[in-house]
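The data are passed on as follows:
___
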Amino acid sequence: MKNTNQKSVLVGIGNAGVSVLDRIAVEHPSIKETLVINTEGASLSASVTARRIAFPPCQDGDLSEGFLAIEEEFMAAIEGAPAVIFCGALGGELGSFLIPALAARAKADGITTLASVGIPFSFEGRQKREIADAALRKLHDLCDGVALIDNDRLAGGVPSTAAVGEAFVAADRALQFSMLALRGMLSTSGPVRITRADLAGSLGIAGAMTHFGHGMAKGANRLHEALEEMLRSPLLTIAGKGSALKEAATVLLLLSGPADLSFAEVQRTVSEIERVAGDRCLVKVGVLADGYADDPLEIYLLAGSGGGSRKATPPAPTKTATLVTQSSSKSAEEWPPARSQPSLDEARAAKSKKSSAAQQTQGVLNLETYQRGRFDKSEPTIVEGEDLDIPTFLRKGIKLVSPFRH
């Protein structure tokens, strides 16, 4: 089924991506532009998301084969979309390979690409974190903006006595609200809006730390309660430094709610963020006041700080997504994921070669049998009465003895 409604498509990859998209499907049934991709298994078959793509098993762990198998179906699903927002957890083999690969393919068609991704908790192991870091660097090169959910920072908001599962639920919720924030910001229009350039400017810096907050409330005191909840988010705090907003040069702010959302509420929200962030911080605000009367007021905040220099403008995209994923080294400076993966270009070439070979048939040479080595229609060579076309040992009656006989 092709998407032609000109709205951003939300794409969930792997178990975490499926979980997040399922939550969105249940809690926001009006959002229809969703797609999940995962290997065959319980999470995909039980998903409530309408559009699903099964990532096939790959021979010898070659994930590029699976990518080529779903590439056409994926491009059909996002056809007509002005933007694609990817969601998933980095560190696992599927998400770390497929999110950058699909982002490259969408970008090659000129589609705005954003990603909301989580990186592993420290207790999940160093190797998994290294794989996630390598994939994250790829995403910063390929996407217009990346919202990073650092699970270790997020864990600061989970009580130490909580079950381990609660930490992962908190991570999924943060990914969910982050994804909705990106979608909402892209949807703003009119004089009070956030542009794609704003998102790229704030979230397009490699190595930057993402600061994210979300709050929602209803009732007469909804603004105060929503603001208070948002500012308590653990992703708006830097250990030992206090509020992360003091480190951010730009803050993106989205207010979403019912049609009675007032100018005064928007103004008070911006004033509060400016007070916390300081005079040097630029606050850009977008408003979506198209909900029902009983909908809550929701406030989303996204900002980035630190990192390297802003990434250079990539060359003009082509229809071929090039994503090198092979490495003989396990260094985090290269591309791990666990098994060495061929580049997508190499995989495409191999696939084309196999297809070409399958279409070829073996020719048959039309050979005839000749006796005594004679050439067709030729006369024998007679010298002094001897036929020279007959081997010498036959003409002379020489007995040949095998050198291997004793």
The mean pLDDT is 81. The radius of gyration is 32 Å.
